[in-house]
Amino acid sequence: MKKISYKIYPNQKTTCLTFSYDDGETNDIRLSALLKKYGFKGTFNLNSSNLGKPKYITEEDVKNLVKDGFEIAVHSVTHPFLETLAIEHITAEVLEDKRALERITGTIITGMAYPFGTYDERVKEVLKACGIKYARTVKYNGFNFPADFLEWHVTCHHNDLDKVSIDNLRYSNILYVWGHSYEFRTEEDWQKFENNLKRVHDNGSFWCATNGEIYEYITAQRNLIFNADLTAVYNPSAITVYIIVDGTVVELPSGKTVSI
Length: 260
Ligand SMILES: [Zn+2]
Fold this sequence. Notes:
Layout: E1 4-5, E2 15-22, H1 27-37, E3 42-46, H2 59-67, E4 71-74, H3 87-105, E5 111-113, H4 121-129, E6 134-140, E7 152-154, E8 156-157, E9 174-179, H5 187-203, E10 206-208, H6 211-222, E11 225-226, E12 232-234, E13 241-245, E14 248-252, E15 257-259
Parallel strand pairs: 2-3, 2-9, 2-10, 3-4, 5-6, 6-7, 8-9
Antiparallel strand pairs: 1-13, 11-12, 12-15, 13-14
Helix pairs in contact: 3-4
């Protein structure tokens, strides 16, 4: 049988890297500039009712984040514990936030981070009905992709990034870093973070993408259709994906069947 591996991402990179930041406070602007400096990408999860208030970024800032290649995602309108609410109330918190952020960004928003990281099965059902494809928690799952993208657990908080070993990424699929930009309180905090960004950047093996881009890529890989002999594979998705067959990287264009 052929040896097929999925641990290959765009630009021949072998591990994914993404950042996820919540709540939309004004430090997001400095943070996004720092991420951009190192070619990193990520997702900002926003409460639409806070935009433009003191301490928070504005609609203009949100537009600029999108221009810079960052993704905007839902964090609910008012940041409640969603699992404590009635179904209609959960729906309003999610859908109104999605609608407001889509109006500002001109993008179709499919991602979310749970306020306080909390959820239950009812909340997940509402997300599905609202067109949310992935939702980030604050649980930890090492360097692995989630089985269920509506429970997308992370690798580490940014404060713990210096404890993460990136010397041997052989079994690491994704480095997923999360936090809040308001947690950078001193210049020393920023410097410590930047030192870690440099270390990750210098490693060179990461595909840097938004949460949504990684969701889309991994979902496309998972939806590949093989024949029984594993000698042909069809990519029904809208994007090119890659696999490694007996040690060789194989490109699988959108909508094409490829002999392997
Ligand atoms: Zn939050």
